[in-house]
Design a protein that fits this description.
- This protein has 2 domains: about 200 residues, DHBP synthase, CATH 3.90.870; about 100 residues, Rossmann fold.
- The protein is α/β, with parallel strands linked by helices.
- Helix 1 packs across helix 6.
- Strand 9 and strand 10 form a beta hairpin.
- The radius of gyration is 20 Å and the shape is globular.
- The strands form 2 sheets. Strands 1, 2, 3, 4, 5, 6, 7, 8, 9, 10 and 11 form an 11-stranded mixed beta sheet that branches. A 4-stranded parallel beta sheet has the order 12-15-13-14, sandwiched between helices.
- It has 11 helices and 15 strands.
- The structure holds threonylcarbamoyladenylate and magnesium ion.
- The site of threonylcarbamoyladenylate has 29 residues, from strand 5 and strand 6.
């Protein structure tokens, strides 16, 4: 059992955040790299620590929906409904920003993404801090999101002033993002809160964003990628594909629910259940790098209800594919 951060750790975290420093904290999706969202200089440190282009907008984490009017100039009824249904939880909403929300947070957009996470350590931190925390996933830019405190320490080292411990993340992949700033709700990123769940609460269709619709870096096809090359395959063809690359001299791993009966191919095992697969996916991709694999052949899980759309989305991105044709900006990324 991993111990969660204690009250004294939370106090230290709050002191650091008030002093404009960076604190990584657990959420139920992935670990976030947090800074005071009202402090543009502190937010700038996030981009430096991640090596992320500074025009990319960040999600502001808040303690409850009651704080929404401090961050958004217009909170539509749809946002109230979704907050009531899914917060605290793995859903971020894009709303019109309030005056005074720094450009450093929004990337200069007139909207801001907001989320109330449900991890107890994140909630304790947000309540004690009594403000908003801008926090992207606590990984270096373009790499796999951290789902354990250890991943953050390994990847960011002393670029982060404190890492709060919160065990392994429950969901394991990033939050659903829905844009409510326009005339109709638009899904920007699939996650554990599915389109069907959103539509049921809203009583309205939720459109999927087109590949070129947002500047969101999480939407770039090259995101969530390990160092190893990831190739997607069907269950039927995966082992023979892995065998082929192995025969050609590559170090090959198979990401699948079934162990390969082949010598020389590393098995990156996934559980059967889609929620458990989401929880373990990023750890397996990290394992691939730790094993020094050149190639990961990944069996794409079937599209079912629930988190499987998000799971397929992250696998495609790990493979350098988007949910359509790569957009032009990725040719220069
Ligand atoms: O699960 C999560 O959301 C995690 C944890 C830490 O909460 N955070 C996370 O942050 O995934 P990040 O920065 O890695 O991804 C945030 C995504 C990016 O794709 C960003 O472009 C998008 O949210 N985003 C933020 N503000 C936006 C805005 N105003 N309009 C459109 N997209 C926005
Ligand atoms: Mg990220």
């Amino acid at each position: 059992m991993t111990m969660h951060a204690r009250d004294t750790d939370i106090e230290r975290a709050v002191d650091l955040l008030r002093a404009g420093r960076l604190v990584a904290f657990p959420t139920e999706t992935v670990y976030g790299l947090g800074a005071n969202a009202r402090d543009a200089e502190a937010v700038a440190k996030i981009f430096a620590a991640k090596g992320r282009p500074s025009d990319h907008p960040l999600i502001v984490h808040i303690a409850s929906a009651q704080a929404l009017p401090r961050w958004s100039s217009y909170v539509p009824e749809a946002a109230q409904k979704l907050a009531a249904a899914f917060w605290p939880g793995p859903l971020a909403m894009v709303l019109r920003r309030a005056e005074g929300v720094p450009d450093a947070v929004t990337g200069g957009l007139d909207t801001v993404a907001l989320r109330v996470p449900r991890h107890p350590v994140a909630l304790a931190l947000l309540r004690a801090f009594d403000g908003g925390l801008a926090a992207p996933s606590a990984n270096r830019y373009g790499r796999v999101s951290p789902t354990r405190a250890m991943h953050v320490r390994e990847e960011l080292g002393d670029r982060v002033d404190l890492v709060l411990e919160g065990g392994a993340c429950d969901v394991g992949i990033e939050s659903t993002i829905v844009d409510l700033s326009g005339d109709e709700p638009v899904l920007l990123r699939p996650g554990a809160v599915t389109v069907e769940m959103l539509e049921r609460v809203l009583g309205q269709r939720v459109r999927h964003a087109g590949e070129n619709a947002t500047p969101a870096p999480g939407r770039k096809p090259s995101h969530y990628a390990p160092r190893a090359k990831v190739l997607l395959a069907s269950d039927a063809e995966a082992v023979s594909l892995a065998r082929c690359f192995h025969a050609g001299g590559a170090r090959v791993g198979l990401l699948s629910t079934k162990a390969p009966m082949e010598a020389g191919i590393d098995w990156l095992g996934l559980p059967q259940d889609a929620d458990a697969q989401a929880r373990e996916l990023y750890q397996r991709l990290r394992d691939a790098d730790a094993l020094g694999l050149d190639i990961v052949v990944a069996v794409v899980p079937p599209l079912r209800e629930g988190i499987s759309e998000a799971l397929q989305d992250r696998l495609r991105r790990a493979a350098g594919l988007g949910d359509g044709a790569p957009d032009a900006s990725d040719l220069h990324a």
